[in-house]
Amino acid sequence: MLKAPDHQVAGHQALDGHLGPLVDDSGCFYKPLQNDERGSKEVAFYEKFISLTGIPSRIRRFFPIFHGTKNLEASDGTGMHPHLILEDVVFGCMKPCITDIKIGSRTWYPGASEDYFQKCISKDGNSTSVSLGFRVSGLQVYGSKESDFWKPNKKIVKSFTPEDVRLVLRRFVSSDVVPGIDKDVTPDCSLASRVYGGSSGVLAQLSELKEWFEDQTMFHFNSCSVLILYEKDLALRGKSGGAEVKLVDFAHVVDGNGVIDHNFLGGLCSLKKFISDILTDTNKPLSEACLPEMDTSADGL
Amino acid sequence: MLKAPDHQVAGHQALDGHLGPLVDDSGCFYKPLQNDERGSKEVAFYEKFISLTGIPSRIRRFFPIFHGTKNLEASDGTGMHPHLILEDVVFGCMKPCITDIKIGSRTWYPGASEDYFQKCISKDGNSTSVSLGFRVSGLQVYGSKESDFWKPNKKIVKSFTPEDVRLVLRRFVSSDVVPGIDKDVTPDCSLASRVYGGSSGVLAQLSELKEWFEDQTMFHFNSCSVLILYEKDLALRGKSGGAEVKLVDFAHVVDGNGVIDHNFLGGLCSLKKFISDILTDTNKPLSEACLPEMDTSADGL
């Protein structure tokens, strides 16, 4: 009983006869191995990662559980194809709000082909990767009303400016969701403290991840994404919404050779600062929160 | 009574009729303004930086004191030329060990000219900038004997590999100094705990700087260097050697626009990890310190 996932926000999709991931009804996510070396590199990463004994569970939880690989009927109808068997991170969610954020100011890495380098350097410069150290690759947000839903298409996501990203990360934790990137509608950020804040919220999880990245020198996570997700209905009812941070997409992970992943770490710190700015701002009295940006940032010094 | 500095390790030098910095006998360092916009941008940075009221003194101490600008007879004999008047950070030192480390995996930045971009991307890829997030731009080290001294020329410094950088940062805090990057001579790192360690050592200073960079969103310090310096004779006599970290070269600083400097921060964290690895290693019993790299790094997880 395999089908295309209901809540995929980025990457290749198993629709209209294309090759894409599938899910079953017991919580597994089947990701087709890409035919070139990317597929085998992602398998190699997962296999190495699960074999390492020194990684604490507080870090392991950021990675989808890996159950091996399996040959399955591909979604594009071309016959059997090897798939990674992973944890379906939104299994059981009714209204998961999800954003996929590709981390790093560069997605290329030493040793990549000239073609790949040129493709990446252009994408990085034409997105917010170079300026922010990360870019939003996709998102979906539910609102408080049954019909409220926003899932911008690829073209819109690709055109996000730094200001759009700031707005998107605010709208992501608001009860009011308007479709489109309308700058005149100020998000209420009413769920910010529940989702981003708190001892087990997104900011706390990003801090834990950051601490690991300040020390780990085994892997460089090139072109890897952070998923941020929570269940809208839970959050609207005053619960934390089970906010979770997950790392996904390991087709370009390379050996760290004893050096920390400064590219990922820098981008992660930048994302963390964006999230913490939202929390600072929403915890302020309205009068202060409306101060011009320049003054607010000078305050922090 | 102006003269070329005795202890300059990187950058243009006021020798053989070239334009370069000068020092006087009262602790001032005169840096000629570059003729293009870089000169005026560096002045503008210093002027803005000293005008900011919110920067605590524990951060200000990382920046050379700025005393304004002055027209002086240029070192290249071409007549009067504007100079920045800065603190001479090695004033009064007899045997200053210095290294100039350019921070960031990229030295270019959005908005720079295509020419500058191409020059930078090539230099970054051909040095350790991309792989380590920083590169050594120059150094000088004194040893315990009067004649021991190592100041590799530009060509050698440019050819440093990641392994060379690791060796150089060890030799930088060793009592035995051999000229040349001879991998068969293992540095004793006898001054590591005094210079890199301790509550006011280099690692503690880099941590303080890092904390500021996790929060400050006013400036992006493109192509800026960290100087690490200490006085060899003091360190050899068991003192801390007054180890200091300074930031220099602000000709490519741009407005942070509310975003942290993830490029600088990533490189700074990588340098910090290199320094902390040296401290960890030199504090270990010899038997452990000799374990293969791979095992050592897995230990930390």
Automatic annotation (TrEMBL), chains A, B:
UniProt-listed Gene3D superfamilies: Inositol polyphosphate kinase (3.30.470.160)
Keywords: ATP-binding, Kinase, Nucleotide-binding, Transferase
GO molecular function: ATP binding; inositol tetrakisphosphate kinase activity; inositol-1,4,5-trisphosphate 3-kinase activity
A Pfam family recorded for this sequence: IPK
Residue ranges that the Swiss-Prot or TrEMBL entry lists as coiled coil: none
Secretion signal span: none
Catalytic activity: 1D-myo-inositol 1,4,5-trisphosphate + 2 ATP = 1D-myo-inositol 1,3,4,5,6-pentakisphosphate + 2 ADP + 2 H(+); 1D-myo-inositol 1,3,4,6-tetrakisphosphate + ATP = 1D-myo-inositol 1,3,4,5,6-pentakisphosphate + ADP + H(+)
InterPro entries: IPK, IPK_sf
Any single Gene Ontology cellular-component annotation: cytoplasm
EC number: 2.7.1.140, 2.7.1.151
GO biological process, one term: inositol phosphate biosynthetic process
Family listed: Belongs to the inositol phosphokinase (IPK) family.
Function according to Swiss-Prot or TrEMBL: Inositol phosphate kinase with a broad substrate specificity.
Name of this chain's protein: Inositol polyphosphate multikinase
